[in-house]
Amino acid sequence: MHKIQITLASFFIGFTLLAQDNTEIFLFDIKTTPTAFEVTSGKNISQNTGYDSQPSFYDNNTFLYSRTKDSLTAIGQYTLDNKSTKILTQEANSGFFSPQRIPETNLIVAVRQDSEGRQRLAVYDFKTNAFQKLLDSSQVGYFSFYDKDTFIASVLVPNKMDLFFKNSNKDSLQKIIGNAGRSLHKVPNNQSLSYTVENDDQNMDLYILDLSGEEPTSYFVCELPIGRQDYAWLDENRIILGSGDSLFIYDLFGEPAWKFAASLNSYKLTGITRLAISPDGKHLAVAAEPVN
């Protein structure tokens, strides 16, 4: 694995974080066994004419997502038990993307895009309803935390994103690899994070970053299907992604192939992109385009 130590530096480049389509967030109940996968009770929970995407579960009863309405991109919060939506941020001329809980804390971290297009990791304070910058000088596109002090981030550099690693033992970001993708995740019940890298065929290869040793080490897992960028971990051994209106699963201990798992056609959606699995493995949230 290629490693370079760098200090935090500014990357002032023109970049649009997202191509903002009119996606919605759909929530499903799921049941899984080592050999079976069932999806039921799907519903559109965002019900918003603007862009809704980037779901992540805060806990088993709450998830967060990025929500755009009337040119205001905010953090939306949905509570499963009372089926209620709350908007956490109301900052004009700012956008909030990829909201996630910081492990071992009650804090939310997100990419905050200011009026000049600068993108910084920032921590949301529930008491003050305000954000404090976590990384002041790195132009972050996407990120994922392993624990409260350790994370990876796809950082924007001219014409691409590079993957960097940060933990409490380092004062600087550690470059892992170039041409990184946007789908970064903690592997459940495992001392690892996962990331994607564009390969020579311009498809995305998925890697695991093992943090169990003295230094982080990367291992190739599989190639994502053609044109797919987003995935989630169903459990520590299985990866799930969407294509069109269908879900596919890759089993690390099964045949090395993506296998059809379920069709969501009856729920009138297509173009599945982002996915999130609740910590207890009972719910799936996906960003997709509604079919009228």
**Percent helix among the residues?**
under 10%
**How widely separated are the two ends?**
47 Å
Q: What's the CATH H-level superfamily name? A: TolB, C-terminal domain
Which outline best applies?
globular
Can you describe what's shown?
The protein has a single domain (4-13, 40-290), classed as Neuraminidase, CATH 2.120.10.30. The chain has strands at residues 4-6, 24-33, 36-44, 52-59, 62-69, 72-79, 84-87, 95-101, 108-113, 119-125, 130-133, 140-147, 150-157, 160-166, 173-177, 185-186, 192-198, 204-210, 217-223, 232-233, 238-243, 246-251, 259-263, 269-270, 275-277, 283-290. 40% of the residues are buried. The strands form six sheets. Strands 1-15-14-13-12 form a five-stranded antiparallel sheet, with no helix packed on it. Strands 2, 3, 24, 25 and 26 form a five-stranded antiparallel sheet that branches. A four-stranded antiparallel sheet has the order 4-5-6-7, with no helix packed on it. The model is unreliable at 1-20 (pLDDT under 50). It is mainly beta and 292 residues long.
